[in-house]
Design a protein that fits this description.
315 residues; alpha/beta; 6-stranded mixed β-sheet; 5-stranded mixed β-sheet; 11 helices; 11 strands; globular; binds D-malate; ABC transporter substrate-binding protein; BUG; Bug_dom1; signal
């Protein structure tokens, strides 16, 4: 009976509202992508209502655990990013295995990061910032969204590239961190352009550099130097977002979600919102679930050694 009911359920999917869990605080880059994507998914999913639920904490491992343990019926999904490839190296007791405890629905986008400072920081460009960092060793506060977050990974790489330890201040997401940065409570942060573009345009923070190997095309970001060109050899980090369902979600439900995701990624409205914030939608080939799974495995292999070299662990 159980098998038929799962089969029957898959046939009528989606018959109920779908929840997309965002494992960071509302208002941040992950939340931004999720809310814009939920908008674009509604029509391809037959008008079903899509609820975005923020379950923050521990660099996305709390929200990710919630979805790993959810009923495998396609009605609870996880939208997460590069943290899916950094958590395995950072948490010794993760209650899930990234590579086996999720069904991979598909990749969404790639998002550059920017290094930004509080508006009162007495350094107007990267060169002046390196002088200020050297003069203020031991007194620098770097905001992030917890161990494993994109802002954490970039901050870790920045500290080891500069050989300067900074006090890291973790938040439930980079939205609350941004509030404190603009208020001057913290000095620096490495955050995705989806969250920083407006603040940079509004001169609410000082922008120093971008983390991609190439300059960006967004008008307000195109003059920012890359960290690589600013002397940090090989410094390159781009954040990517993907959609996941709990392991055991029926294959045809995952396929229906992947088809709807592909349609949403072709939605001109969604593309326009993403591009205005410096994000780039993945190419068609990369939208396949199998590609998503392969990519995450490669990213786990890539970032593990980087994190271990930087020597930060958490239980
Ligand atoms: C991150 O640093 O991982 C993200 O910015 C977290 C968030 O979406 O707030």
């Amino acid at each position: 009976a159980a098998v038929t009911s799962l089969f029957a359920q898959a046939q009528t999917f989606p018959a109920n509202p779908i929840t997309i869990v965002v494992p960071f605080a509302a208002g941040g880059p992950t939340d931004r992508v999720a809310r814009d994507l939920a908008e674009a998914l509604r029509k391809p999913l037959g008008g079903v209502s899509i609820i975005v639920s923020n379950v923050a904490g521990a660099g996305s491992s709390i929200g990710s655990t919630k979805v790993a343990r959810a009923a495998p019926d396609g009605y609870t999904l996880l939208l997460n990013h590069i943290a899916m490839s950094t958590m395995p190296a950072l948490y010794r007791n993760l209650p899930f295995k990234v590579e086996t405890d999720f069904e991979y629905v598909g990749l969404i986008n790639e998002v550059p990061m920017t290094l930004i400072g509080r508006p009162t920081l007495p350094a107007k460009n990267f060169k002046e910032l390196t002088t200020w960092l050297t003069q203020n060793k031991g007194k620098i506060n770097l905001g992030n969204a917890g161990l494993g977050a994109a802002s954490h990974l970039c901050g870790l790489m920045f500290q080891s590239a500069m050989q300067i330890d900074m006090t890291t201040v973790p938040y439930g997401g980079t939205a609350p961190a941004m509030t404190d940065l603009m208020g001057g409570q913290i000095d620096l942060m490495c955050d995705q352009t989806t969250n920083t573009t407006q603040q940079i345009e509004g001169k609410k923070v000082i922008a120093y550099a971008v983390t991609t190997s190439h300059a960006l095309t967004t008008p307000s970001l195109k003059d920012l130097p890359t960290l690589q060109a600013s002397g940090l050899k090989g410094f390159e980090v781009t954040i990517w977002h993907g959609l996941y369902a709990p392991k055991g979600t029926p294959a045809d439900v995952v396929a229906k979600l992947n088809t709807a995701l592909k349609a949403a990624l072709k939605d001109p409205e969604f593309i326009k919102k993403e591009e205005a914030l410096g994000a780039v939608i993945v190419t068609d080939k990369r939208m396949e679930s199998a590609e998503h799974k392969k990519f995450v495995a490669a990213e786990i292999a890539k970032w593990g050694p980087v994190i271990k070299a930087a020597g930060t662990y958490a239980d």
